[in-house]
Amino acid sequence: MNQTILLVEDEKEIADTLTYALSSEGFEPVWVSSCEAALSNINRHSYDLGIFDIGLPDGNGFELLKTVRNAGNDMPIIFLTARGEEIDRIVGLEIGADDYVTKPFSPREVVARVRVVLKRLEKQQKILEQNATTDNGLFRHLAEQRVVTYQASPIDLTRAEYQLMTSFIAQPGRVFSRRQLIESIWSSNHPSDDRAIDTHIKTLRAKLKTLNPHKEFIITHRGFGYSLEP
Question: For residues 107 and 135, which has the higher predicted lDDT (pLDDT)?
Fold first, then answer.
């Protein structure tokens, strides 16, 4: 069965191009042009991945993603962002997007990103099945439930933050380079730079700080990367 992709894009020319590119590569794209139509489709169908434009006629992709996540849907999301709008990329990553593509883009690049995200998730699922539970004393990773807990209480994490925490918990004290952390979220050939990881670390730290304001869980190793305090 073909993997289904929900494309939320209000520009018909772009939508037609991406629909053709995705279909040609064996995916089953469904195109809608508004937030309302997207939510209606998501409520009625299950999708393997979503591609959301940020500027939509009845809202924006950020709010759409927040609504989807608040409803408990964790399907991977790729954002389409405007050229040079770094703030769009950062905000998208902060609220739980899996990747972003900057306009103007090549349809082949979008298809390649879709494949990378889906392949990474498939790989993660296999790892989860092999390692059901990881425990480092304070933090615990319950792989089957896709949950990270602190002193038995679940932590609300975005998909990227979850991936970072599972890497840290599996090897507490290990210093991960930014490139290694990028690969834990995306892939080895992903174009994301160090700032993307720094953004995720910043939001993750803020969440961990609420668990214990007197403890610095994630340690910065200048010139090297980050580690979880053992």
Answer: 107
